[in-house]
Amino acid sequence: MAVAASTSMAATAVLMHRLPATKPAAGFFPLPQRPSLSSTPFNQLKECRRSSQLLVKASSSDESSIDANELFSDLKEKWDAVENKTTVIIYGGGAVVAVWLASILIGAVNSVPLLPKIMELVGLGYTGWFVYRYLLFKQSRKELATDIEAIKKKIAGSE
Predict the structure, then answer these.
(1) Rounded to an integer, what distance in angstroms lies between the CA atom of residue 152 and that of residue 21?
(2) What is the DSSP string of 8-56?
(3) Euclidean distance between CA atoms 159 and 153, whole angstroms
(4) Cα–Cα distance between 13 and 7 in angstroms, integer?
(5) How far is the C-alpha of 13 from the C-alpha of 17, rounded, in Å?
(6) Cα-Cα-Cα-Cα dihedral of 69, 75, 76, 78, to 10°?
(7) What per-residue confidence (pLDDT) applies to 8?
(8) Per the database record, which ranges form the Cyanobacterial aminoacyl-tRNA synthetase CAAD domain (predicted)?
(9) Using an 8 Å Cβ cutoff, are 126 and 132 in contact?
């Protein structure tokens, strides 16, 4: 029993021994530093091209610039034109909560083994069916266009 205890203590002492941080032990040399990815010639060339692309792009007129004051004044006018501000705030908050809950649900589904792959297969199957049903033939494309127009009219309230 005493031998086993001394053996485990010796092993612990050997495992706990650390080399001093100031100078390396004989035979142990630190590995050379790898060059960072941004210093490789390929990345330097890519950065050079990116900056030259940014320099080449120029606007021919001053109309395309966006004025922040104009943007805020337009938003303020539109907000003042809204009659039911509480409803807009409630709908906006509900949309934020719905996106948050959807991200939680997607994270939970993604953590289940095999379920994400099955969902991908279902999505691919539905996409294939949709392409065959609505996009492959001219008559079915016309049918899809009329269905979309009918839905637009229902949403806009003109029907």
Answers:
(1) 71
(2) HHHHHHHHH----SSSPPTT--PPPPPPPGGGSHHHHHHHHHHHHHHHH
(3) 6
(4) 10
(5) 6
(6) 150
(7) 45
(8) 74-157
(9) no
For the chain (159 residues), the mean pLDDT of every run of 10, in chain order, is: 47 48 55 57 57 52 70 89 91 96 92 89 96 93 94 85
Distance, in Å, from the CA atom of 47 to the CA atom of 39, rounded to the nearest integer, reads 10
pLDDT in the model for residue 29: 59
| Whether 109 contacts 119, CB under 8 Å | yes
Does the pTM exceed 0.85? no
Structure tokens at 149: 């127009």
pLDDT for the residue numbered 67: 82
- Cα-Cα-Cα-Cα torsion 152, 153, 154, 158, nearest 10 degrees, comes to 150
Which is nearest to 145 in space by CA: 134, 158, 156, 159?
A: 134
